[in-house]
Amino acid sequence: MFASTIEILKKAQKGHYAVGHFNINNLEIMQGIINAGVKLNSPIILATSEGSIEYAGIEYLVALAKTASEQNKIPIALHLDHGRDMKLIKKAIDLGYSSVMIDASHESFEKNIQLTKQVVQWAHKKGISVEAELGTIGGKEDLVHSKDIIYTNPLKAQEFVQRTGCDFLAIAIGTSHGAFKFKRTAHLRQDILKQVVAKVKVPLVLHGASSVPLSAVKEAQKYGAVLKGVQGVPEAQIKLAIQNGIVKINTDTDLRLAFDAGVRKTIKTRPEEFDPRHILGPARDYIQKVVEQRIKLFGSQGKA
Question: Terminus-to-terminus CA distance in the chain, angstroms?
Answer without folding.
Answer: 15
